[in-house]
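hiii so my PI (J.) wants the whole complex modelled not just the main chain, which honestly fair. so below is everything: two entries, each one labled with what it is. i double checked the lines twice but i was tired so who knows lol
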Amino acid sequence: MKEKINKNYKIFLTTLLAIFFIKIHSNCFASSVVSGISNNKIDIDSNFKGTEILLFGAKGDAGDIIIAVRGPKKNFLVTHKEKTIGVWHNGTRIKIEDLYSYYALFSTFNNIDETNQMLENLELGRNNLIFKSSLTDKTLNNPKNKILEEEFYNSLVENLEQNHLYLVDANKIDFLDETLFKAMLQFPKNIPQGTYAVEIYLIRDDNLLSFQSIPIYVNQIGINAEISNFCYQQPLLYALFAIIIALLFGWLANILFIKFFGK
Amino acid sequence: MNIYLPIAEMSVNIPLIMLLGLFTGILAGLFGIGGGFIATPLLMFIGIPPAIAVSTSANQIISSSVSGVLAHLKKGNVDIKMGGFLVLGGFIGSTIGVSIFTILQQKGKLDIVISILYILVLGSISIIMLIDNFKSICEKKYNLTFGKKSNLRFKKFLVKIEKLPLKIYFPKSQISASIIILLILSSGIGIMVILMGVGGGFIMIPAMIYILRMPPHLVIGTSLFQIIFIAVNATFLQAATNNTIDIVLSILMISSSAVGAQIGARIGYKVDADKLRSGLALIIFLVCLKIFFTLLISPEKLFIIENLH
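here's the output for the full assembly
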């Protein structure tokens, strides 16, 4: 608890400083946006339960703000359950490749019109994300397959939303006055590791006035990082280690039981 | 009480996982089965990626079987010579099984083949066992005798098996069996284990009782003995080729299931063999029923999502 208060206090101080800094400079950046975050490193240790990062900024011009947070790209396999003669089984499988493993969207728009050409180009919005699928371009020319691909993509995004990895709706940007704003970026306990990009866009009348990108590095630290490295870099030793530990525990339990409960 | 799993990349509740390990361990010590059939789906249910759930439970099975075998060994309830032959056949079978698996996977519809195989094999085994045990319990209790007419064809089959050459005597079990039937049986089970993912003990134990005619008190320990080798092999292959063993998750399950196996074995000393077999038959039957219904009932989610590396 104390730690949490301490952390919030730190965030508050940085925000104050940043706001002060931005206030002074915001006049120089006419028609632009300046922002910063409270922390650009997320360390995953054994107690990791998710975290929050505060984003704050100022805009020097009228317009709407969109903030997008994009996680490292990953590949997914989506399998559809199908029914044949009354029996359920695994049916069509589509690989969806190079899709953001984490995606959060904040905006000052009341309703984002995702069909807007500019938003589409900037990959802003749930349905504007670019990905590759195992369906080839040739098969995609068949409109049936295009619908199929969309259906699979939607189910994948729904799954990611349920796991709090896609946060697209109802994410608010708070305004402290005309120019100053802040937003709380949420990172759940199951975020993938890698480099994330926080992107801040200032948009007016379908024109991009300003753009800024800030990285966040998400990594395991301490014993977690060591185990992870061991597993991926020395798989043979890791396998032996796993086996020996299991044998050892089995043997140990037997010894202890004989000692305390007899044969 | 949560801990972050470095390979599964998520955090889990420590007491929950340890309880799961303890339970699988008890089943192992009591019935001589690995318990992967219960651990794997429960791990997936709490959100562990399927590949990691499968391999990590293989790792956990090592500790519960070692712990269980040692407990049974003290009572002299393990036929190591017999176990050795079964392991040999198991390795041959799993090698063949892997290539069948690849062929079926390329053709698709693997899951439906496996499910139907499961239902047929496990369903018939459990029903035969249940009827058989019901009869023998009744016989003991009420001094009844049932006509053995229905078993005539099976007896003829057993006589044929006994006539096979290359016989070996197993002093511990006090039976002799032909190498041919031992290898065919254990490699057949090895193939099924690869195809079905779990279920080595499920099929091995009834085969030991009904085909090899081993004395009941040796069956559980000997089954656990050969499961150790199968689980070691599976753990090694999974960790070395797929990086799917999460050692933090393993250690939580390993430590609790080793204790569970000791408890299970001790419960087993006190329960008579007929009741134990009925219990096992009931478990097999329930698993079979569960698979049967998942084939027929509409799934909760129409799409299954897997993360790829």
